[in-house]
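Lab notebook, page 48
Experiment: co-folding of the full assembly
Goal: obtain a model of how the components sit together before planning crosslinking
Operator: M.T.
Materials (sequences as entered):
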Amino acid sequence: MSEQRRVRLFRGTRERGELKEYAVATGEGMVVLDVVHAIQAEQAPDLAVRWNCKAGKCGSCSAEINGKPRLMCMTRMSDYPADEPLTVTPMKAFPLIKDLVTDVSWNYEVNKRIPAFQPRAPDFPDGTWRMYQYEVERPQEFRKCIECFLCQDVCHVLRTHEKHSAFMGPAMLVRAAVYEMHPLDEADRREHLRHEGGIGYCNITKCCTEVCPESITITDNAIIPLKERVVDGNYDPIAALWRKLTG
Amino acid sequence: MAAANLRTHTYDVVVIGAGGAGLRAAIEASAQQAKVALVCKSLLGKAHTVMAEGGAAAALGNVMGEDNWRVHFRDTMRGGKMHNNWRMAQILAQEAPDRIKELEAWGALFDRTPDGRINQRPFGGHTYSRLAHVGDRTGLEMIRVLQDKGVHSGIDVHMECTVFKLFVTGGGIAGALAYFRETGRFVLFRAGAIVLATGGIGKAWQITSNSWEYTGDGHALAYDAGAELIDMEFVQFHPTGMVWPPSVRGILVTEGVRGEGGVLKNATGERFMFRYMPDMFRGDFAETEAEADAWVKGDRKKNRRPPELLTRDVVSKAITREIAEGRGSPHGGVYLDIASKQNADYIKKKLPSMYHQFKELAQVDITKDAMEIGPTTHYVMGGVKVDAETQEATVPGLYAAGEVGGGMHGANRLGGNSLSDLLVFGRRAGFHAAEAGRRGSRSHIPDSEIDITMQEALAPFDRAEGENPFAVQSALQAVMQRHAGIIRDRLGLETALAELDKLKVRALEAGVTGSREYNPGWHTAIDLRSLLVVSEASARAALERTESRGAHTRSDYPDSDERQAREQIVIRKEGARMTVQRETQPPIPADLARLIKEGA
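Observation: model returned without errors.
Model output:
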């Protein structure tokens, strides 16, 4: 069942690097991360790769597989032709550290500046609230985000135009959307989204939605409603208040 | 580099590990006005808490009003086979509801009951529906909420930073030495108090649900600093890990599948758990398939729980036996079937990530077909011996919370008790560490000691021709899997100890090439030191306990010995030697003992 596959990995640092080809024996059901681990264990112990859960739940092993942003742990080798080499490179939208590992700390900085969750006063003297399933389902979709940052990687505002200083990117808009659409939240993030977050930079090409391994409908369910809130908030405060009250 | 020009930070409290326990401890310490650092081996938000699927156990009584802390306490003690630190079990049961409500106040979005309260699902070993949950991704929700609370709490976070040494001076904790993965540079943290929240030791076995990080660093750091470890023989093998294809072997399949009605079947199609009812639980579980099915359908007053919801130790052993006796599936597991019990929409709604995981990794549609599953190393009940109230270890200023702490779960942890453990004891550890950290002496750490520690850590670079650390690691995992796995005996454990002695030599001779920057070979060489300590501790404790209890099963001592129920195996470092000692735990107060025996 084992077959020999050729895999090209980016090896190197910011200063210098190249694609290096490895031959690996693969078995049934192997994913790209297994192959990278096999190379690391047997041929290149200093090969840098980030990973944790190996089950698509932590979002650590993001990379570009044949040029497409994907999780290595959820990408099966059998989805690619066996007679062609497979190429794995680091995410392009972030500074390289080494080999397949990039510096994603910018995302954490951006997240820190999103105004914090601010619940309304408890509904009951025991400090609890009542929320209904239909209300929580909307923000729950965004909480599926595993912070793999693949949507940031594919977003042309960041990837091509490098507007990291002006645009928070789809992942962080999803992060803001959790609280903006949280039934208990009372904070107002519109100013933040409009200015520091640069929500206007998004021109709804939906590339982020396509790469999301959690199938979050990023553009339609998170970004567009946020854009509407920001616009409405600017021109019609009563409508904005209405929206806030009705979620 | 010498200690004199080492990058140094000074804090009141340094929390090592950023899963649920570490984050909760850091948030609390910061709330108590301490200057806090959170140091994590991976990126923030990637810790194994994200893998916790089923839920957090708390006797909120939202679904079944009969529930209260007494029933939760009783379930926990019985699940732990009466070996738990009774006071910790009591604190957990009493405080978990408040910790869950607090999480909601911080933004958590738990699934709801029809009347708008936090919904709760049934789980193994819990009398009532008790687990607050978010589909099958509860841990992810918890860690994200804590992460967001944490970043607004003024905590310094040091990511991808591995601590490999604790310094103890003048009888108390003084600091920790770590390296940053990115640069390979060292950093010294001076602190009046240190909270260990490093999780488990699962990477010491081949088939495991744990990631690369879980090499028992906190256990080994504490041991090395002179603290005592307890209960290291109690390693939980979760009944349901994936078994096929080989590359995913060991990945967790949540107990929530059984909580939602999933049944276990052997190769003959028999629902075998009815045959494995321990005396302790006889009368608490359904005796026929019809009764179990009626319970799943929602008629919970008149019917009892399905036997698939027995405690994890019982289910794991039953599966192991079915396989050993030739009734296993083609790839060496048994079947977990929810497709025949619930409709496709329900399964996708309640267990979305399981649906996704099997579809993507095994090409199995769990709404149509059964899953092939088998036991996987999951959790260590043993850990650093701590004071139940404060979580302080036997070394002053050192605290441990979450999986790295010992005693709470006894001989077997109930599903769902881990997430509440993180919150309850994370908070307590943070609270008390803040107090100790602020008054901590921060006595001087001798430069010579720091220099030696750094030299030792860099030694693998001097042995470029040495053995590949990954090879040593996989040899260690093979030894533990074979000789210290789910069923043990004297001969096997002695073999394990002899093999570990040889592996210690191989680890000291392992070498790495390349630079210090993000070099996993080097990281593995350092992790090996922890793995060797926890593997030896686990094997020695397993050899010492001459009975079977909970997760610890000796084929040469198949029965439980009530005289050993409250005896604890204590591991300690004396010189370079690991010592093993038996100590008797304080007795359970009469009123609580009665509660356990007679019911709440």
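Interpretation: The radius of gyration of chain A is 21 Å.
Next step: discuss with group before ordering constructs.
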